[in-house]
Amino acid sequence: MLHPIVRKLAAYLPLDVEEQAALAGLSAGGQRVEGRHDLLVEGTAPDSAVLILEGIACRYRHRPSGSRQITGFLVPGDVCDPDFAHLGRINHSVGTLGACRVARIPREVLSGLVEGHPGIARALRYAKLAEEETTREWVMNIGCRSAVERVAHLLCELHERLRIVGWATKGGYDLALTQQDLADTTGLSNVHVNRVLRQLRLMRLVEVGGRRVDILDLPGLQAVAEFQADYLRPANG
Q1: What's the confidence (pLDDT) of residue 237?
Q2: What is the pLDDT of residue 86?
Q3: Helix axes 17-24, 118-144, angle to 10 degrees
Q4: Could you give phi then psi for residue 187, rounded to 5 degrees?
Q5: Cα–Cα dist 91/166, whole Å
Q6: What stretch of H or E contains 112?
Q7: Which value, to the nearest 10 degrees, does the dihedral of the CA atoms of residues 16, 83, 166, 39 take?
């Protein structure tokens, strides 16, 4: 099986053997990190990008009151953040949700990769565009969709992203998200998320539990969510 980052970037444009080998080499020195551990901390200036090899992480911010908003998920193959050299201090944190394996990519390694492989540079740019499109879709989720539609859309999105990198089948995927994580992502309460998941189960669309998402009716779930995956694969011209 191709490395997750190879599978992800190859979905945007073809990569030759040399480019695939260079990307796969980024996993050297990968380390296991326990769940609920910060990889990047708000207010700090990162000295390396983070590549997710296994597991799932998230971008998030805390209010002074302690409430949290998850603003993005990072799945295997995602690099956070390839543009870190231009960011200075970051205004959000990045933390693991379940146990992950990650690799840190120093600035000089990432710069050399991009400069030496224009195809990889273009693919990373498309990945960034997809991330921006995803953020806009999440704004639509919270602003325009019902609670059932929000959760269904998120589950569809994660299924598609994990499928692309080889971590999901048509029948579902492993997911180390709690109901509170889903609430912090969709702008709902924990109790409301519980009701939504029960409703989706009664509709025979999906079952979520035990760190697993079992999809019972993918077309039906996508129809409820009005899910179209185009925003995850921006046109590459």
Answers
A1: 42
A2: 67
A3: 60
A4: 75, 25
A5: 31
A6: helix 107-116
A7: 140
Closest CA to 136 of 2, 28, 25, 232: 232
**Token pair of 158, please?**
């994660």
Q: Using CA atoms in the order 230, 132, 168, 41, what is the torsion angle rounded to 10 degrees?
A: 180
What stretches of the chain show up as alpha helix (H) in DSSP?
Answer: 4-10, 17-24, 107-116, 118-144, 147-164, 179-186, 190-202, 218-225
- Identity of the residue numbered 163: R
126 and 13 Cβ atoms separated by less than 8 Å: yes
What does DSSP assign to residue 186? H
CB-based contact 58:73 (threshold 8 Å):
yes
* Amino acid occupying residue 119: G
Cβ(72)–Cβ(26) below 8 Å: no
Task: Identify the residue whose tokens are 């190859």.
Answer: 10
Interatomic CA distance for residues 147 and 195, integer angstroms: 10
- The CA distance from 153 to 150, in Å, is 5
Rounded to whole angstroms, how far apart are CA atoms 188 and 169? 28
Adjacent-strand bridge partners of 172: 169, 214
| Regions in the chain scoring below 50 on pLDDT | 237
Q: Which amino acid is at 218?
A: L
Interior CA angle at 56 toward 53 and 58, to 5°? 120
Query: Which pLDDT does position 135 carry in this prediction?
Result: 96
pTM, full prediction: 0.95
Instruction: Look at the block and give the residue holding tokens 């295997």.
Output: 76
Give the Cβ contact number of residue 81 at 10 Å.
19
